[in-house]
Amino acid sequence: MINITAIPALQDNYIWVIHDGGQAAVVDPGEAAPVLDFLAKNRLELTAILCTHRHHDHIDGIAKLREVYNVPVYGRRHSGNPRIPGNPHITDDLREGDRLKLAAPAVTFGIIEVPGHLDDHIAYLTPGSVFCGDVLFGAGCGRNFEGTPAQLLHSLQRLAQLPDSTQVYCAHEYTAANLRFALACEPGNPAIQQRIEATRRLRDANLPTLPSNIALEKATNPFLRCTRPAIVQTLQQRGLSDTSELGAFTAMRIWKNGFQAA
Ligand code: ZN
Ligand code: FE
């Protein structure tokens, strides 16, 4: 039996632990202490570290974890873009189409490259689950720091094509704030209102709103709904003239950057 648990870390990160009751892999350890606590408390041994991208809140715990557990670190070592740094922690480089087969916990992941937040971003797919770092969030998506909006949109579209029941393991608890933006984009969508209520109940109980699932994201995440007439209409009222999917997506991502700060 494979178990997947969120370890809250830093401000609003989740470090996902995948374990079989004895051996564990962690995804994006931005901090070591909460991981070491979790492993000790649950009598687990760390066997692998998985990285989605090189941001500090996803890698800063790696060095300390490896002082205790000298385990491989999987991820994308460098995007190939000479203008940006690589991820020096990676011991085992992964690329689009690779398969990562862990022995214990016994889990095999398919690797897809999902650029658009950072160039080096990858996602880990296993039947029924995806670990998508900072690309797809609950009701939102990551900022477009590197690459083009078209790349980020394409990455999101690839994730949206996964089966509806796929559990979505994102790296941040941003769902509540994202839903406020989703509602501004699409005030008449009852699924957003329902998700706001469900999210409030979970957060009031100090529980994660994740994993999400692809069906719920397709129903409530404005970044997966760029061609919906209600969203296009909202954006047009804000001055959008290019109503193509990419035009709407780009305008929405820029609007959200300011919306978050407000
Ligand atoms: Zn990031
Ligand atoms: Fe992050």
Question: What order do the helices and strands come in, and which of them pair?
Answer:
Elements: E1 3-9, E2 13-19, E3 23-27, H1 33-41, E4 45-50, H2 56-59, H3 62-68, E5 73-75, E6 92-93, E7 99-102, E8 107-113, E9 122-126, E10 129-133, E11 136-137, E12 140-141, H4 149-160, E13 167-170, H5 175-185, H6 190-204, E14 212-213, H7 214-220, H8 229-237, H9 245-261
Parallel strand pairs: 3-4, 4-5, 5-6, 10-13
Antiparallel strand pairs: 1-2, 2-3, 7-8, 8-9, 9-10, 11-12, 13-14
The structure holds zinc ion (ZN) and fe (iii) ion.
Can you describe this structure?
There is one protein chain. This protein has 262 residues and is an alpha/beta fold. The chain is built from nine helices and 14 strands. The strands form three sheets. Strands 1-2-3-4-5-6 form a six-stranded mixed beta sheet, covered by helices on one side. A six-stranded mixed beta sheet has the order 7-8-9-10-13-14. The protein has a two-stranded antiparallel sheet with strand order 11-12. β2 and β3 form a beta hairpin. α5 packs antiparallel against α6 and α5 packs across α9. The radius of gyration is 18 Å and the shape is globular. The model has no long low-confidence stretch (mean pLDDT 97). Bound molecules: zinc ion (ZN) and fe (iii) ion (FE). The site of zinc ion (ZN) has 4 residues, from loops.
